[in-house]
């Protein structure tokens, strides 16, 4: 049974978006910035500083001050993550915010040039898991440590994928990473009933990731699936899925930790 607790973001809100330099992350940043109340603060994270600056300029408003930080989230230490979050507060106290919200959007595809039955390079796998699973957990923990003072106002959105719950040929790195990441957030949601946790699956979206699949995959089935997405014009625009994510989030009808897909009935 879904809970039906409307989520009110109209108070002063602190909001982090990882992977905010382009694609879905940029669209999420733009859409959430429209919903936040006066004296809100956003922190945008990714590596590309110029593109982060562009996203920031799209989000800035009378209500929302936006900061951004170029950071390699696959390599950042726990201390670096903690400092980036703390420094972004820029004179605000944690208790100045009614709500603190984080979108774990950062993600990568992994090695698409290796058949699943030939995977053996654990360093390569570890690098993938660092960015997509381990460091996501570390960043989330730093966020929780800093904001536990307003625990009743903490909201976590993990950008997941259908691939977390349904196997896709040629994407063993991606599917297994997304599954592990989603399950971590489900366990957290199970333990922390006062934190709202959403696993939002954005559907197939027209971003750099789609072209990367077509460029790099050695799996014919995967190439066929993504080619037909492109040829049939079925890919969603980042704005469409970001708006849907906001709708799901605000309606608050999801069970804590639930996987909600763009195409799920409302
Ligand atoms: N596109 C789809 O169809 C689709 C479907 C389901 C789920 N998703 C998920 O949605 C999320 C966003 O995907 P997208 O399609 O928008 O991908 P994208 O266009 O490739 O964007 C990925 C974002 O992550 C950032 N990033 C990548 N590596 C990073 C690193 N080492 N350190 C810091 N930031 C890093 C990128 O910024 P920099 O390069 O500037 O660092 C970029 O902002 C991902 O979690 C993805 O798995 C996408």
From TrEMBL:
Keywords: Cytoplasm, NADP, Oxidoreductase. Its EC number is 1.1.1.153. It is an enzyme of class 1 (oxidoreductase). SUPFAM superfamilies: NAD(P)-binding Rossmann-fold domains. Transmembrane segments: none annotated. Belongs to the sepiapterin reductase family. This is Sepiapterin reductase. It comes from Parnassius mnemosyne. The lineage of its organism: Eukaryota, Metazoa, Ecdysozoa, Arthropoda, Hexapoda.
């Amino acid at each position: 049974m879904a809970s039906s607790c409307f989520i009110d973001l109209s108070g002063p809100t602190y909001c982090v978006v990882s992977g905010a330099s382009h694609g879905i992350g940029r669209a999420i940043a733009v859409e959430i910035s429209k919903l936040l109340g006066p004296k809100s603060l956003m922190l945008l994270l990714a590596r590309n500083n110029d593109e982060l600056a562009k996203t920031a300029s799209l989000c800035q408003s009378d209500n929302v001050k936006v900061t951004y930080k170029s950071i390699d989230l696959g390599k950042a230490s726990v201390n670096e993550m903690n400092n980036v979050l703390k420094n972004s507060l820029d004179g605000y106290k944690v208790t100045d915010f009614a709500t603190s919200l984080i979108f774990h959007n950062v993600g990568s595809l992994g090695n698409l040039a290796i058949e699943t039955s030939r995977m053996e390079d654990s360093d390569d796998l570890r690098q993938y898991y660092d960015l997509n699973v381990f460091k996501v957990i570390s960043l989330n923990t730093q966020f929780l440590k800093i904001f536990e003072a307003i625990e009743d106002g903490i909201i976590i959105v993990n950008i997941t994928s259908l691939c977390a719950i349904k196997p896709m040929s040629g994407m063993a790195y991606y599917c297994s990473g997304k599954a592990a990441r989603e399950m971590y957030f489900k366990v957290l949601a199970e333990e922390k009933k006062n934190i709202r946790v959403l696993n939002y699956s954005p559907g197939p979206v027209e971003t750099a990731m789609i072209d990367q699949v077509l460029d790099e995959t050695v799996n014919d089935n995967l190439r066929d699936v993504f080619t037909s997405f492109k040829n049939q014009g079925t890919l969603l625009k980042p704005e469409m899925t970001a708006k849907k994510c906001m709708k799901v989030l605000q309606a608050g009808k999801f069970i804590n930790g639930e996987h909600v897909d763009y195409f799920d009935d409302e």
